[in-house]
Amino acid sequence: xxxxxxxxxxxxxxxDIRSSAAEQLFAALNAELTERYPEEGANxxxxxxxxxxxxxxxxxxAYVDGCSVGCGAVRRIAPGVAEIxxxxxxxxxxxxxxGRQVLSALEAEARRLGAIRLVLETGPRQPEAIALxxxxxxxxxxxxxxxxxxxxxxxxxxxxxxx
Length: 163
Prior knowledge:
The chain has one domain: Aminopeptidase (3-Layer(aba) Sandwich), CATH 3.40.630. Helix content is 29%, strand content 30%. It is of the alpha+beta class. It is globular and about 40 Å long. Strands 1-2-3-4-5-7-6 form a seven-stranded mixed beta sheet, sandwiched between helices.
């Protein structure tokens, strides 16, 4: 995969969250999260298609030569606030800027939706994600939303960035 990414162009585009490519990426993401966080109730997989409908949010897939290698979603959760959800890059595509490009598309969409603050939740067992978000200007914040009622709040790292 590394050679492929060096020789081709990465494309990030809006996609249908119900597509087969999205389903495959979500299955891989869910499997990885379940492996990293096997504790009951530790994972927050919920994202409904209406939450990423035009005007409310968006879902993006990153492609290399027509092959889906990453994804991410953004949804408005309050006036002026949007949340990143379901961000994922396939292991073979990591370290090649895919995450940065998906994150950039999500930030641009959040601005288009009128957000002035972007929030997200990741976990302490995902140091790569924390590093990516930190480099992009996100800082730790207190738990918010559904993460406040998590049975394992110690497994949530919430972050935010003012746009």
